[in-house]
């Protein structure tokens, strides 16, 4: 399953802003093919009806034999500017994240912060010693290595210097299902990161591979974060200069952590390449990152790290507040992070019915939040929060209406709008829609034979259009299909259009 339009987001925020992640920023794959003039096609010399030009954009070879549903309305008055089977429900891929973001913002509010609680068998005394340290996750999906350092530094400032016994990790805020059963076999790619009640780095890590100095030399491998939990087995070698790379980077669960395997060849003189992979156990991975940061601050842990529950008699030491939900939503939508989306679904479930959060209680809670906003999902199917399931079914009319409601909401509108990727600017649209830079804010989506794009576009007259285009089953390449959608939204912003409401059927 390929989900290039829906990356697993970046690893952590500082790196996302530097050009990866994920988050989600980290599996961004953008492709623009110059087909039929591409998204940057020249403006028509005389005004052409917008609906005719939009229709033509969807007739290229990239979408041949595809089922296509589309709707464009003017935000000011809801006038329909274009439609093609707007009520046909199709697999939306990561356009599902629009609804998840809205539901989470409505449920918790943009200033909500998920809490990670640290407790102990006793308060640190004058010597800074406790027996057992407990860490209870609150389902925070955006705890990075930097956040775990901040938590550790806060513990240090509270006087903690040594843990004589074990560190116990409690992920019971969520159930034990790490991957939705609808997804089938999952890969080690970062967009298949697991979902847990206690997390680090979006359940992912980076593997950087550099060729050796000469053919036959081992390649050089670095793993970030450098924790013992991620052990490396490097069997890759440096190949002749000019040879195509055959590197394969994978991981598998081991007795004491995970084994990161690097095989194949990298050509001498070739470029350094970074691969992003998911972990299999988010709880123990988070514990490893915590252990690394405690050690960096000089806090000694004499026992082991294990998974368990916090006993009722444990004494609170620290209640660590994560980043605001508004910021989490912006990161996860911009970079299409699947694990964050599913964590938010489970968090909504726990909020509605009590822990543990699960897909079973989270999806109804998400639907209820959307209903309270006025989004009508009757007859449509919501299986997960990220859109990785092919059984998710939405229509452009529902997505356009949801975006209209979200944009107009004082409570969630600013955060929702700011979260959408900007054409030719950032997120999963950083290198897309070159024909309308800065004039489109939209959520991408991509699975095998599925691509989608929904959001807002600035028309040439300054009006705003709300649009949604869903395509399933195309026979062109993913790049051709994405380019067709890029052309579609670029046409919306073209001053060569004669903008008229579409005729009623």
Shape: globular
Assigned CATH class of the domain at 32-92 and 394-398 and 419-505: Alpha Beta
At the fold tier of CATH, the topology name of the domain at 32-92 and 394-398 and 419-505 is: Beta-lactamase
Distance between the termini: 38 Å
Report the oligomer: single chain
Number of strands: 23
Describe this structure in words.
The protein is an alpha/beta fold and 505 residues long. It has a domain of 153 residues: DD-peptidase/beta-lactamase superfamily (Beta-lactamase). Helix content is 26%, strand content 24%. The chain is built from eleven helices and 23 strands. It has a five-stranded antiparallel sheet with strand order 3-2-22-21-20, with helices on both faces. Strands 18-8-6-4-19 form a five-stranded mixed sheet. The longest helix has 16 residues. It starts with 12 loop residues before the first helix and ends in a 7-residue tail after the last strand. The N terminus is likely disordered.
Please outline the helices and strands.
Layout: H1 13-18, E1 48-49, H2 50-57, E2 67-74, E3 80-84, H3 96-108, E4 113-120, E5 129-130, E6 133-136, H4 145-157, E7 162-163, E8 167-170, E9 204-210, E10 220-224, E11 230-234, E12 237-239, E13 248-253, E14 258-263, E15 265-267, E16 273-278, H5 282-296, E17 300-301, E18 305-307, E19 315-324, H6 325-334, H7 338-353, H8 359-373, H9 396-408, H10 413-419, E20 440-447, E21 450-458, E22 464-472, H11 478-492, E23 497-498
Parallel strand pairs: 1-23, 5-7, 6-8, 7-17, 8-18, 11-14, 12-15
Antiparallel strand pairs: 2-3, 2-22, 4-6, 4-19, 9-10, 9-16, 13-14, 20-21, 21-22
Helix pairs in contact: 2-11, 3-6, 3-7, 3-8, 4-5, 6-10, 7-8, 9-10
């Amino acid at each position: 399953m390929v989900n290039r339009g829906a990356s697993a987001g970046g690893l952590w925020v500082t790196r996302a802003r530097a050009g990866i992640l994920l988050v989600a920023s980290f599996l961004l794959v953008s492709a623009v093919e110059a087909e039929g003039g591409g998204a940057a096609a020249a403006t028509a010399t005389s005004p052409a009806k917008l609906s005719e030009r939009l229709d033509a954009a969807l007739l290229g070879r990239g979408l041949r034999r595809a089922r296509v549903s589309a709707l464009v309305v003017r935000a000011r008055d809801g006038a329909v500017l274009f439609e093609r089977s707007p009520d046909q429900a199709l697999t939306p891929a990561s356009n599902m994240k629009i609804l998840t973001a809205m539901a989470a913002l409505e449920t918790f509010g943009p200033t909500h912060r998920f809490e990670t609680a640290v407790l102990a068998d006793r308060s640190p005394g004058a010597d800074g010693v406790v027996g057992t340290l407990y860490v209870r996750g609150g389902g925070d999906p955006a705890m990075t290595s930097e956040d775990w350092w901040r938590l550790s530094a806060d513990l240090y400032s509270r006087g903690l210097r040594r843990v004589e016994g074990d560190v116990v990790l409690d992920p019971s805020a969520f159930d034990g299902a790490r991957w939705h059963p609808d997804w089938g076999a999952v890969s080690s790619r970062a967009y298949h990161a697991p979902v847990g009640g206690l997390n680090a780095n979006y359940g992912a890590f980076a593997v950087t591979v550099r060729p050796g100095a000469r053919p036959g030399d081992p390649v050089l491998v670095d793993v970030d974060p450098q924790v013992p939990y991620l052990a490396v087995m490097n069997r890759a070698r440096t190949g002749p200069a000019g040879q195509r790379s055959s590197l394969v980077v994978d991981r598998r669960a081991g007795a004491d952590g995970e084994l990161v395997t690097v095989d194949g060849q990298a050509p001498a003189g070739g470029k350094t390449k970074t691969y992003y992979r998911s972990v299999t156990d988010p709880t123990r991975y988070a514990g490893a990152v915590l252990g690394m940061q405690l050690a960096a601050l000089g806090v000694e842990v004499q026992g082991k790290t294990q998974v368990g529950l916090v006993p009722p008699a444990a004494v609170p030491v620290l209640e660590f507040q994560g980043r605001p939900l508004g910021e989490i939503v912006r990161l996860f939508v911009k970079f299409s992070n699947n694990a964050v989306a599913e964590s938010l679904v489970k968090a909504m479930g726990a909020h509605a019915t009590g822990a543990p959060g699960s897909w079973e209680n989270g999806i109804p809670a998400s639907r209820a939040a959307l209903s309270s906003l006025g989004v009508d999902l009757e007859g449509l199917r919501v299986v997960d929060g990220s859109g990785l399931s092919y059984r998710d079914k939405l229509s452009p009319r529902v997505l356009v209406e949801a975006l209209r409601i979200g944009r107009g909401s004082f409570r969630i509108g600013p955060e929702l709008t700011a979260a959408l990727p900007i054409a030719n600017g950032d997120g999963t649209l950083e290198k897309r829609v070159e024909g309308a830079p800065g004039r489109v804010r939209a959520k991408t989506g991509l699975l095998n034979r599925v691509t989608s794009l929904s959001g807002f576009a600035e028309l040439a007259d300054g009006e705003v259009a709300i649009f949604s285009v869903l395509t399933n089953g195309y026979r062109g390449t993913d790049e051709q299909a994405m380019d067709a959608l890029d052309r579609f939204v670029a046409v919306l912003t073209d001053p060569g259009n004669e903008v008229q409401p579409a005729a009623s059927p």
